[in-house]
Amino acid sequence: MSNEFAAQLSRRRFIQYGSLALGAGVVAACSGGSSPGGGSADLGENPIKVGVMYSTTGTIAIVEKSLQDATFLAIEQINTGTGPWEGRGEGIAGRKIQKVVVNPDSNWDLYNQMSKRLIDEDQVVCVLGCYTSASRKSVLPVFEEKDSLLYYPVYYEGNECSSNVFYTGAAPNQQITDSIPYCYDNFGPKGFFIGSDYIYPKESNRIAKAELEKAGGTVVGDEYAALGTTEFITIINKIKAAKPDFVLSNLVGDSIPAFYRQFKDAGITSKDIPIMAYPTTEEEIQAMGPEYSTGHYTSFNYFQTVDTPENKLFVEQFKEMFGGNRVTNGVMEAAYLQTFFMAQAMEQVLKEGGELNTATIREATRGQEFNAPQGKVKIDPENYHTYLHSRIGRWKEDGQADIVFSTDSAVKPIAWSQALYKGRVCVHPSPDDRSDPTKETGKDLTPVFL
Amino acid sequence: MANVADMNNYVMGYKQSTFPAKLVGIGGIALLVFIILPFLLNSFQLSLMSKLLLFGSLAISLDLVWGFTGILSFAHGVFFTLGGYASAYYLKLNLSADSNTYGGQLPDFMVWNGLETLPWFIAPLKFFPIALIATILVPALFAYVIGYFIFRSKVSGVYITIITLAISSALTTFFVSQQAYTGGTNGITDVSKLSFFGTEIPALGLYFLILLYTAFVLVLGWWLTQSNFGLILRSINENEKRIAFLGYDVAQFKIFIWTLSAALAGMAGGLFVPLNQFISPVYLAVAFGTQVVIWVAIGGRGTLVGPLAATILLGQVQNYAEKVTQDWQLVVGILLLVVVLFIPSGLMSLLPKQLNLSNLSKPKPLPVKVAKS
Amino acid sequence: MLDAALSSIAFPLLPIFFLAQEGTEAIGGFSMASLLNQTLNGIGIVGILLLTGLGLAITFGVMRIINLAHGEFIMLGAYVTFVMQDWFGMDLLLTIPFAFIVTAIIGGIVELTIIRRLYGRPLETLLATWGLSIVLQGVVKLIFTAQLKYVKSPAYLSGNVLLMSDASGSPLIAISYYRLFIVAIALALLALTIYLFYSTAWGREIRAVTQNRDMAKCLGVNTKLVDMGTFAYGCGLAGVAGAVISALKTVAPPMGQDYLVDAWMVVVTGGVDKLIGILAGSLLIGEANAIIAFILNDPTARVIVLAAVIVLIRYKPEGLFTVQKRS
């Protein structure tokens, strides 16, 4: 081997090792630059470790980032003793919350992996997180196997009864049961159902179909688009051809703005065919532009326009922390309120001199009440879902909702749709009894209010 | 034909003269490390290591086709997932009655989607031997059909890659849309644990099972590529026309290694489900297929050990990067760019010569030169 | 070449002509008029495919660069439009040149720093561009956050061309101005590109470099400059696509991923030898998608079309519209 060649070779080697070092440097620089959530704040002695698991990158980040924001606001308020935590001192009975933030990059595989890490390695007491049903399903075996707790802030399809999850979003009976008769009475009997192609929209539409048929209406079309689809010309043409009285939309994420825009672009106004949606909130409206949503409807537990003192404070403080142009929505409110459920439960355990673990927190969370922005809410001690208000909003030109229907108080959650599974309920006998909590009562259940 | 005989002699001579003592030594040490390792790890690290070993064997199986015959495939996640679904059906159908909310034998997602009876093509997977065979055979058969279709044509290079891209994309859409049979985007969740004659296999046992499988894939890959067969594969990569002139049926070799590789990937998927407790179309998607390609590229194509090492290394890097920054995939992207631009032959090429395993697994005389004689 | 393009328009329409003769009874639950309406609206899908595929037809078709970051250049174009509207209140149409220039400049820089080092190594290019796509998404997310962005569409392009309405006056066959606008822009860019490539000195240089790089170099062509210019132009076209689409779809960092596989399929189907192939490819895929999706549903249509493309590549890897070459 000639010297020249050797020299060249070592130069190449030098570049290679150098670039590796550079890569490592970049890793280090990035890590120094944007450490999540500013972990440097003084957390005092013996902080309580809580996992926060929302994707801030990838396709679902458009939704989950704001859930993370709302959670951060709540934790900040608890740690500083402000907002709803006013008068309870800094932290939970003197101990502050240390948030362990993970970003699963909208990848179900990483939700599973990172939930294991949070529980085993970071030893968090419980986890706040997840948005899609797929991500919840991917972490469920982890939480059940390791007997840890997940607070899940999202309206979902029901049919689940885990003793390791507190569901603080709407169960089917708090979102679908009231909205379908409303559509039937105000728009007409013919509904066209659309949704993203996964379990929540499909199951949701199946429940809605049963409700609509019970009311005397018919479903004239049922169409699904792959998650993340932004091309809706075919579905819109099918809607045109079927001439329904209303459209029920269970599209999620970035499909929502694309659909509303193309719907209007195809020349259909909200007077011709109004859209009733579940996942369309203030955030998506802001992204699509309010001119596309004016006159359409959403059924949710919370709107930014809900008139309570708690909500005024929440909206004000959220804008203060994250910018005046941001809006709040129902999922964010659920992410916000569930953090307080958790904090109240922890406070109760600590004040009674107990130790923070899954069993004690689960026991204390059952039946916990809180004056949330949407009004007074409560965790159902039997099925671990949440008493929530059922509301319908009509979107105005400014991107905010005119609330056209609201229950007087929060509705008791029912984990199973009664239109599909008559009489089936979820009752956890006692917090530590892990036997199958699904019970068949065989009876018609009447709505129960808080 | 004389040339071929020459080549065989030459190769056999080569093999006799270099008993891979060093390789066996290094392999033994590595194996020992992996045997001791789980006793030092917490349960999260144990499950992460198990997962990375499985992903590693998936990367090795891709390396067999990409590194040795030059076929770049984005569809290896597909084979992995097909094996995974076979094993997931088995575990789902073997849930004990009390943990199935419906009491019956029908999986929950089928009930939600209005199925009343178990489809005939899923029902047999309740039995372990059938499920085991299906875990290997379903991806292998699928790969065989595709391989037969592609390799017996003039399609080459980039176009094969684009076909695998289309397969991955089409199958993802298909699995998501067939919610009644596949569980849709959620995939198959809430499955039973893998048990051995009625006793549940603990996490540690699963780790050793996976370690055994990974070692098997590695040794099989090494043995294959060292043999005459491997030499022919390499020659196909070097000069396909010439090897065809020598009387070899190039397509047949490609189809064989492609199918074998899919079977290995499928079995890895099959082991993945008991570990991960769910399988979903996320592993079918182009993004996961690309991830596998990246492991191989960063580790070094045609080195077998490289892809395994890169998978474990990248998995750990990602785990730590995630702890310090939310934008960890930006870090991974930059790392990928750096490796491709400055270390094109992969991390294995950075090892000092004396330790270079890739050299050990590479027979010195290139077949092209042999053919000249 | 022209009748090749024409036949590709007629092909997907053929079944409809046959069915039309049988009268106006319903097909798959829908009336004939709805199906015709869908076929017409399929042109809207074709326009988007053509627009998003055009840049790739340059970077892959002409330069043979496997660019997996193509979708991210579309995304960059959309963000340029967003920024121009947000900061300066510009009309969407006015932002298009900016989208072109900015993405072209970024494309040029990428060529200079990354692609240039990898010519002749297609698989490395593929990996590098995948890494690049992750980096571009990450950087955009860092600057603009992950939230969806709002882009205002021009008021004068809202509304529909009504071709036929039923007895009660509600539209039966109509297509929106904005969809037509997308088709028009796509066709105009295709025409411009064909003109540039086949009738200008720069185009001749590009073709010379792609046909025989060394010979072109010997003849005094600055091949490096030509490479950079061509890649930048391809990226610029992707940027225009992003700008135009932003008003109809959504703007977020991962948006480009949606267009990547489709753009590839379009380019491969049409063939890369002639730029006109991309028109054929997008017409075939767009209309096939539209019609199958209307009769069955969207996911099924996608699976069928992808399977068809796989079969097509198997039998005609060089695409449908290629010049017969002697080997």
Can you offer a commentary on this structure?
- The complex is a heterotrimer of chains A (450), B (373) and C (327).
- With 450 residues, chain A is α/β, with parallel strands linked by helices.
- Chain A contains 12 helices and 17 strands.
- Chain A has helices at 3-33, 61-80, 108-121, 133-145, 176-186, 199-215, 233-242, 255-265, 282-288, 309-322, 330-351, 358-365, and strands spanning 48-53, 97-102, 126-129, 150-152, 165-167, 190-196, 218-225, 246-250, 275-277, 297-300, 369-372, 375-379, 386-387, 391-395, 401-406, 424-426, 438-440.
- In chain A, the strands form 4 sheets. Chain A has a 7-stranded mixed β-sheet with strand order 7-6-8-9-10-14-15, with helices on both faces. In chain A, strands 2-1-3-4-5 form a 5-stranded parallel β-sheet, sandwiched between helices.
- In chain A, helix 2 runs parallel beside helix 11 (330-351).
- Chain A starts with a helix and ends in a 10-residue tail after the last strand.
- By secondary structure, chain B is an all-alpha fold.
- In chain B, 69% of the residues lie in helices and 1% in strands.
- Chain B has helices at 2-17, 21-36, 43-69, 76-93, 108-112, 128-151, 158-177, 179-182, 203-226, 228-238, 240-245, 250-276, 286-299, 305-324, 328-342, 357-360, 367-372, and strands spanning 195-196, 199-200.
- In chain B, strands 1-2 form a two-stranded antiparallel sheet.
- The longest helix of chain B has 27 residues, at 43-69.
- The two termini of chain B are 12 Å apart.
- In chain C, helix 3 (70-88) packs across helix 10 (257-270).
- The radius of gyration of chain C is 21 Å and the shape is globular.
- The model of chain C is unreliable at 1-28 (pLDDT under 50).
- Classes of the chains: A alpha/beta (450), B mainly alpha (373), C mainly alpha (327).
- Chains in contact: A-B, A-C, B-C.
- At the A-C interface, helix 2, strand 7, helix 7, helix 8 and helix 9 of A face helix 2, helix 5, strand 2, helix 11 and helix 12 of C.
